From TrEMBL:
Chain ranges of the Nucleotidyl transferase domain: 3-270
A molecular function (GO) term: mannose-1-phosphate guanylyltransferase (GTP) activity
Chain ranges of the Mannose-6-phosphate isomerase type II C-terminal domain: 341-445
UniProt-listed Gene3D superfamilies: Jelly Rolls (2.60.120.10), Spore Coat Polysaccharide Biosynthesis Protein SpsA, Chain A (3.90.550.10)
Residue ranges of every copy of the MannoseP isomerase/GMP-like beta-helix domain listed in the record: 295-331
InterPro entries: Man6P_isomerase-2_C (IPR001538), ManC/GMP-like_b-helix (IPR054566), Mannose-6P_isomerase_type2 (IPR051161), NTP_transferase_dom (IPR005835), Nucleotide-diphossugar_trans (IPR029044), RmlC-like_jellyroll (IPR014710), RmlC_Cupin_sf (IPR011051)
Keyword entries, A-Z: Nucleotidyltransferase, Transferase
EC number, as in UniProt: 2.7.7.13
Signal peptide extent: none
Protein known as: Mannose-1-phosphate guanylyltransferase
Amino acid sequence: MRSILLSGGSGKRLWPLSNDSRSKQFLKVLHGPEGSPESMVQRVWRQLNHAGLASEALIATSLPQVEILTSQLGDDVRLVVEPERRDTFPAIALAASYLYSVESVSLNETIAVLPVDPFVEKEFFEVLATLPEMLDKSGADLALMGVVPTYPSEKYGYIIPQSLSSSENNNKYVNVAKFQEKPCESDAVLMIEQAALWNCGVFAFKLGYLINLLIEMELPIQYDEMLKQYGRLNKISFDYQVVEKANQIIAIPYNGFWKDLGTWNTLTEEMGNSVVGKGWITGDSLNTHLVNELNIPVAILGLSDVVVAVSPDGILVSDKEASPRIKEILKNEDQRPMYEERRWGCYRVLDYTRNEAGGEVLTKRICISAGKNLSYQYHLLRNEVWTVVSGTGELILDGQSRMIGQGDTVIIDRSMLHSVRAVTELEIIEVQIGSQLIEEDIVRVSTEWQDIVQTYVKHA
């Protein structure tokens, strides 16, 4: 079995920690096995490794998430990157064309698709591993995993069963009659009485099933051609494009722990500590949580059932039940992310100003992890001034190499090629000055440090 993990989109429901570049799955607010901070994607990848499934898994993602995925999961994780965001059907089709034409995966291979951020225990992956067997025994087009409901939720979609069958080894599956999106509570009660399941977004199919469907739709099945034509694929979900049109669908019940940590209310239920970052909560503040990413203290006194989240992007103070309303408040906001995690480390925007003549000045604090490097790059719209705050690094500026350390200043005019590799953890204050200061103003020439040194450094 091959697995495709879907990691797309951007998030506002967990603002101000989540933004266009840092979705909810990347927030390090959970507790890892040894008590260290862990994100949802790191937790799921660790669980896949323990289940022996990670080596046959890849992540379908969007371009803005490549850096943070590499940072959190390492350079060995296999990514299929959408040229642009176009919903789940195009993303899965792109990944399927990669498996078929690049990795030469058999058309008879089972492909499992799952979100990158389910909050589950190991039993979930044990059921996931049964999907190929159930697909073979049933002869169905699609096999879904459905969660046995614990209460009549109005937040989830439901899988309505047709009949119950048993396989020889007592694994069970249900034939699916229909689906119901987010019913009212009274309808949910009736559906649960009919053995309906929560739809957790996990399903499987034979690779040949989807490849044949792409051929019928006159879409490319070669990965390189799919990349070229990706922009003409309809923005449509896999559910609408494939699931609703399938002839036979089964669902395998998962009677175990499952939770969608999509709101501050649900996320704080699984946080190991009530305070993350600098701050205090008084003892009479019950069921209250603080997540603080800034280096200033926050105090919460006598407030219960409240979440306070502080980041460079903003400050949220909310009753927990009301916290999902933040998405509605921010629907017209288009603020640039003030913090980003990259494959080499992270940066935080400290200040931004625009003068009367229209010039812009942006100040960043950049932290580069030891042994990591920026790409060899240049800019068209801005000049930069670097001041090294701490650490040491090797700088390459227009083909000249030298060491830099605390107190050194580097002036980088537009069009000057530059890169730096951190020997020890390197902290730099970067001041950008230009007519338009955007992250897209980067022309990358090379990424790997050895390639940069061997190809571009001028030797005397």
